Structure to design on (322 residues):
């Protein structure tokens, strides 16, 4: 039942995002196709490319990217390997092969654009930081929200494995207090969706391939040359102890913001999606002042509030507004 409901959720979210003007595209790599959505923007900031976290998909970032068309020349949202419509066969490949295939896909997507701002949250933040080393010439800037990849001791790593490889499937209710500040109106439905997402064989295969040896070495962070914004919520209960690693090793041009009420993925709850996009835009207009004209009026379709409630802005239908 949970898998069927999740399938309906995925199909509905894709249809609604397309109805709001985003085009579904694929690029072909040696190992399979990488899927993304794109839409022309009405603003003057560089193109913005967004990467989601583990167990998610590109449409889950809709509460963030729906606000960005008004200020950017283009918005692109990519499905990571083992997620969404991307077709890289994670179960049959090493993590290195998966990574190289994803790089190949991103290379093709970004080769069509001017240097872009790359955004990533959690696993997507880790991927954004890795790609910044792989192809820095493709990036005008980097925004990471609670990225994975910090070096941690074994107990901290085992805690994360417990959360993502076990609790999401066997005890999904235990994940809810880690992700949300507010009390949920429909905790059973949310727990069921989490369980369905992380029970997918391809997501489980990806989890099995992740190890502590794949974290970001200090020199990787220190070598970042592009303008960088790190956002880390004071209510991040997934990576509560990882921020000091990034503070210690990010280069001087990196800005670090710590909103006290932000959770690990702040766009899934309440007004945090609006606050997140505002922080991004304020930073980008300072970093790229020559390109920061007055933002165009948003052109959200009448379906925008519906999409925000389905994919996956839980707040409208699943959160108490008390």
């Amino acid at each position: 039942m949970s898998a069927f409901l999740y399938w309906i959720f995925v199909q509905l979210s894709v249809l609604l995002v397309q109805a709001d003007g985003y085009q579904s595209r694929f690029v072909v790599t040696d190992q399979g196709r990488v899927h993304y959505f794109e839409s022309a923007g009405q603003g003057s900031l560089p193109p913005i490319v967004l990467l989601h976290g583990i167990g998610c998909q590109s449409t889950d970032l809709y509460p963030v990217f729906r606000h960005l068309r008004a200020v950017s020349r283009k918005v692109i949202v990519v499905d990571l390997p083992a997620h969404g419509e991307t077709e890289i066969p994670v179960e049959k490949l090493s993590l290195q092969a998966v990574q190289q295939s994803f790089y190949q896909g991103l290379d093709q997507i970004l080769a069509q654009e001017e240097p872009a701002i790359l955004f990533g949250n959690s696993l997507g933040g880790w991927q954004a930081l890795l790609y910044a080393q792989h192809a820095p010439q493709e990036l005008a800037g980097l925004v990471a929200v609670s990225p994975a990849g910090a070096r941690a001791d074994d107990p901290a790593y085992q805690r994360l494995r417990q959360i993502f490889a076990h609790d999401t499937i066997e005890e999904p209710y235990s994940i809810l207090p880690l992700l949300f500040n507010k009390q949920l109106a429909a905790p059973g439905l949310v727990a069921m969706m989490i369980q369905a997402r992380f029970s997918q064989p391809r997501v489980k295969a990806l989890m099995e391939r992740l190890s502590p040896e794949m974290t970001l070495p200090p020199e990787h962070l220190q070598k970042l040359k592009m303008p960088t914004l790190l956002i880390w919520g004071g209510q991040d209960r997934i990576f509560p102890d990882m921020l000091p690693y990034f503070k210690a090793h990010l280069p001087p041009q990196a800005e670090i913001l710590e909103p006290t009420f932000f959770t690990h993925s702040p766009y899934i709850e309440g007004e945090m999606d609006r606050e997140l996009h505002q922080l991004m835009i304020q930073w980008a207009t300072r970093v790229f002042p020559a390109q920061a004209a007055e933002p165009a009026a948003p052109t959200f379709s009448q379906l925008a509030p519906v999409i925000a409630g389905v994919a996956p802005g839980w707040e409208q239908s699943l959160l108490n507004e008390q």
